[in-house]
Amino acid sequence: MTSNSNIDFNILYKKNFRELGINWVDDLAKNDDYFVTLMNDFQKLFPDVKVTDSYMILLKTITIIIQNNRFILRKSDVYDFFIMSYKFLIDHLIKKRVSAIPFTLSTYDNVVFEICNDLLHHYDNFSDVVKIQFPNLLVDILSIIFFKADIEGKKISVFQLKTYYNSKKSLLLSHKYSYPDRDLDSVLNLPGRYIEQPDLNLDEIDDPLSSKANYAAAKKSNSHHHQYHPSVSTQEDNLSMIEEMVYKIAQIIQRDPTQVKTSLSGLPTKELQKLYDICNNYNKILKYGKLTEIKEFKSEIESELGRSLSDKQIRHSQISIKKVQFYIENILDGKFEPHLTHGINHVKHNFEYGYRLVGLINNSKLKNKKNES
User: Fold this and answer.
1) Residue 48 CB: number of other CB atoms within 10 A?
2) Could you state, in order of their start, the residue ranges of all structural domains in the chain?
3) What's the average model confidence in pLDDT over 32-47?
4) 346 contacts 325 by C-beta, under 8 angstroms
5) Is the full-model pTM beyond 0.70?
6) Minimum mean pLDDT among 106-110, 154-158, 242-246: which range?
């Protein structure tokens, strides 16, 4: 793909793209510098993405943040994003005569029209997990139109474009393919800072497979059969707990259940218990995650707990809840390495403190004391 490396992303994003009036982009992050930082370091941060053109990097950055934040666009929003981005690329790549693009616009106008028509008729029926990923597919289509290759660099001709769209959409709908999740905090080396920042953006968390059987309700109905206590746990207890958690965690972090089971099997009992508590309280996590106003969040938490928390504690817990997927993934992947001198990982410790404050995971020390008594 052609690279426009001399283009200033500050101007490209803050001025040129913002002129399109796609206002929901403002909800993806608290400040524009977050976008610009990702765009400037895009090729280093996401080496698997082969796009080098600055305009495509801008669009791909938006879709990465959409997927990272589990941001679900309305039909009108995703429609506008596709159409306005198409016109945006025409204005900047065709009218300014980028030499790498041999073009007959009418050929592609028909395909774009057909995709828009498909969106209008079917988008509302997509599951949330597909809606979250769908902008990625649309940017793939734009990449093929303007550069004859998708974002990953796979060559696609105009004659394959509609087939490509239908095939990729079918794979998304059947959950046989998903665009890679990218933990932006990790790639920007920000996990520790997120615990300390008071102005973190807290977009809504949505259950990607809310139509599935409710995990918490099923767990509650089975609670008289299986009650887990770490101090008297056995290998059989762990295996039973893993079986209960596998599919819920697979839904939360969008991984293959077999992979999740393998990762869980390698965890110590103490870590399994924390993940078990989170799964059991996931309905609460969803509910709390939708309360973006700090006063509303504080009122709901304190009503649930029956006691007061300081504003600092509330903010800490709110951030921990927002990052629950990041926490689970890092537990499974063994990325929370303990500090050599302290014996703990401070980022992990901060997350767990936030969860304990609002009762999403149990205080193991208190539980052990009760068991001893």
Assistant:
1) 9
2) 9-173, 188-372
3) 84
4) no
5) no
6) 106-110
